[in-house]
Amino acid sequence: MQQVLTQDGICLALEIYFARSCGIGQVSLALIFLVLTGALPLASSYSITADESDPKKEYAFPMLLISSGFHAVVAGYTYSWYSGTGQMGFAAGMLASGFLAAMGLWCMLFAGSSRISKRTGADKRTSGFPFKNVEADKRKKR
Predict the structure, then answer these.
(1) TM spans, by residue (predicted)?
(2) Average pLDDT over residues 53-78
(3) Inter-helix orientation angle 60-85/88-110, to 10°
(4) Residue 91 main-chain phi, psi, to 5 deg
(5) Which of 70, 102, 97 is nearest to 89 (CA)?
(6) Secondary structure of the chain in the HEC alphabet?
(7) What burial class does residue 52 get, using C-beta atoms within 10 Å of its C-beta: 0-12 exposed, 13-18 middle, 19+ buried?
(8) Cα-flanking dihedrals φ and ψ of residue 123, to 5°?
């Protein structure tokens, strides 16, 4: 295989990096295909609602988990290359992938309907400063 890449059979560091990055990407795509085709069940019972405005979709969380994991692995991989070579291109790739992994983790933790109270149906994010808190006033009247 090495003789195909160069005449003297030596692989360049950039070629090794791209080959391994391609492998990581292919594993992530394989996981996405397994989830989207239904080969891996996402739950023991499917609770599909007829409401199209439901923000919770069946495949949103698994796809977010796979893509965040991919970016976390790529960030770690580019960090190992940056620490070995000191090239700033790897540092930029590490920062970009780390940012995307952090955003995915943030979305997995804080996205959803937890801001809506299950008991009252009111939004929990309301406050009294600097505007009047109408939702809190409704609760006080009860």
Answers:
(1) 27-48, 60-82, 88-111
(2) 82
(3) 150
(4) -65, -40
(5) 97
(6) CHHHHCCCCCCCHHHHHHHHHHHHHHHHHHHHHHHHHCCCCCCCCCCCCCCCCCCCCCCHHHHHHHHHHHHHHHHHHHHHHHHHHCCHHHHHHHHHHHHHHHHHHHHHHHCCCCCECCCCCCECCCCCCCCCCHHHHHHHHC
(7) exposed
(8) -80, 130
